[in-house]
Amino acid sequence: MNNLQGSILSSENFDKFYLAKQRLEIIKSHKLQLRDEKHKEIDHSAEWSMDHIESEVKELREGFDKGDVENQLEELADIINCCEIRAMMLIY
User: Fold this and answer.
1) Alpha helix segments (H runs only) across the chain
2) What's the pLDDT score for residue 40?
3) CB within 8 A of 53, min separation 6: which ones?
4) Which one of 3, 17, 40, 71 has the fewest beta carbons within 10 angstroms of its own beta carbon?
5) Distance from C-alpha of 81 to C-alpha of 28, rounded to nearest angstrom
6) Rounded average pLDDT per 10-residue block, the chain, 92 residues
7) Structure pTM?
């Protein structure tokens, strides 16, 4: 894994960022479908959403500590999905 050097908007970094977002969107879609199947019948309260984000961050840290790149990508996808769900709750 490489460190990010310079601006995310530089042409080299932006291209990599765009490609990473595309890959993450595929993972996010899959993870969102799994989440929907698993949590279809529960009450998605504000407290649940915050607790779930915190739980996913802990799992991300575990993947980071193990150097497990695929797990980190899955956890990032979960976190982004949780954040988007939380944003939907705030907006609507």
Assistant:
1) 11-38, 46-66, 69-91
2) 82
3) 79, 82, 83, 86
4) 3
5) 7
6) 86 92 97 89 87 96 97 97 94 95
7) 0.88
pLDDT of residue 60: 98
Instruction: With CA atoms as reference, report the closest residue to 54 among 89, 82, 87, 88.
Output: 82
When divided into structural domains, the chain yields a total of 1
CB 84 within 8 A of CB 52: no
Is 4 part of a structural domain of the chain?
no
Nearest to 60 by CA among 84, 52, 86: 52
CB-side neighbour CA atoms (13 Å) of 63: 15
* Domain of 59, in residue numbers: 11-91
